[in-house]
Structure formats: structure tokens, C-alpha cells
Amino acid sequence: QVQLVESGGGLVQAGGSLRLSCAASGSIFGINAMGWYRQAPGKQRELVASITSGVTNYADSVKGRFTISDAKATVYLQMNSLKPEDKGVYYCNVRSRNTDYWGQGTQVTVSS
């Protein structure tokens, strides 16, 4: 079992920045991928960014603005130049031994 605790969401003006963190604990030695998803009201959850063995992947909508990184079983998402369309609940995701684990979600609101 892996437990995830997210932090760092909030309200920011368009053009601003936020940094999300997700700390994993428990059976962390089997983790082979970490990522962030978001879900806007009325929309499906979508992949924002992922990192696997140092290789990163980004949704086209956030390329050049968001940066994912990881260190010591914690995954970060640095979000710069935020836009109103980035609003949503952001969920941390970790894959360990072919099982997906999800964080509790953190709200990001971007005002125009």
C-alpha cells in the first residue's frame, strides 16, 4: 500500500504560479511512475504530467509552463503562467507494482 498526501493548491491570478507537492509513504520501493492529473468541473480527469525513471511527459496544454520533478518519494508540479483554464482539482497519481494510487486532490483556482 502507498499513501499519498498532497499540498500546495490555492487561488492565484492569471499569470501567477503555484507549486504542488505529493509525498508518498508506505510501500514506496515499488513505485515506478508518478504523475499529476486534473479534473475540471463537468470534464473527465486528464493527465497533466508524468515522470518515469527521469523521463517526463506533458499534456500539450501545459508544455513550457509546467514542470514535473521528483525527489525522495515526493513528486512536485511547478505551475507557471497559470491560465483560467488550468482551474480544477489536481490529483497525484503513483503506480506501484501495477497498482494505481491516488491522492486526495487539491483545488487550483485561477482568476482572470
Q: Overview of this structure, please?
A:
The protein has 112 residues and is mainly β. It is built from no helices and eleven strands. Strands 2, 4, 5, 6, 9, 10 and 11 form a seven-stranded mixed beta sheet that branches. It has a four-stranded antiparallel beta sheet with strand order 1-3-8-7, with no helix packed on it. β5 (46-52) and β6 (55-58) form a beta hairpin. The protein is globular. The model has no long low-confidence stretch (mean pLDDT 96).
Strand content: over 45%
H and E string: EEEEEEEEEEE
Number of helices: 0
Total count of strands: 11
Name the shape in a single word.
Answer: globular
Structural class by sheet pairing and helices? mainly beta
Head-to-tail CA distance between termini: 40 Å
Radius of gyration, taken over Cα atoms and rounded to an integer in Å: 13 Å
In round numbers, the mean pLDDT is 96
Helix-residue proportion: under 10%
Uncertain stretches of 5 or more adjacent residues: none
| Main beta sheet strand tally, sense and closure | 7 strands, mixed
